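To the structural biology subgroup,

Please find below the input and predicted structure for Response regulator transcription factor, which we are adding to the shared reference set this quarter. The sequence is reproduced verbatim from the submission form. If anyone notices a discrepancy with their own records, reply to this email rather than editing the shared folder directly, so we keep one authoritative version.
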Amino acid sequence: MGVRLMVVDDHRLLAEALASALKLRGHRVLAAAAPSAGAADLVVSRAPEVCLLGTATPAEPGVFDPIVRIKRDRPQVAVVVLGPVPSPLGIAAAFAAGASGYVRHNERIEGVERAMMKARAGEAAVDPQLLQGAFTELLNPAAQPDDEGARLLQLLTPREVEVLVRVAEGEDTRLIAAGMGIAPSTARTHVQRVLMKLGVGSRLEAAALAARTGLLDRAAAGPVPLPPQRGPA
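Predicted structure (tokenized):
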């Protein structure tokens, strides 16, 4: 039996693409929406069985506040978070807010569907490998985010940093070009260079990496000083 669901994501195209794929698999999609600020109101009013909630920044404070509201007003709604591979705090924050599952945003549609079915059945829907990765990071913590953010920031030109900021704010190529006063083709080239330098395959991954490493905070604080260069002896 198909699931009655909603897809909410800051990126409307992603929400609509996922909704279309799930419709083709026999599920009833009540809505596919992008207004993250009004996500809770929308879900509460429609009362689906499952809400797929997409986020690029699972560790950001307050990002899971809509889940708290949904579970308070519609406790029967199972919320499954779709996001990048998060820090352990990201997974913990999702479940602490009341989520029933966490699925990687690049998971195949079959994996998303399995998570939906498990969540509707009242089970925790999270990939054991994802949990194992979280525990591994807890036991072997990575470098401090600020250090990684500073390193990545030095790879980008000032214009590429501006492009990354706009990408993280959800702007598409047309909006980036208009905001920076450049041609869409030039904006597209800048975006591709940013993705290449950061070693990611999509804008969503770039935004998630920037948020996770503190790169955007570094960019807002100003240029990172380079180590002093020694002159000729």
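Summary notes: The first strand starts at residue 4 and ends at 8. Confidence is low (pLDDT under 50) at residues 224-233.

Regards,
Lab coordination
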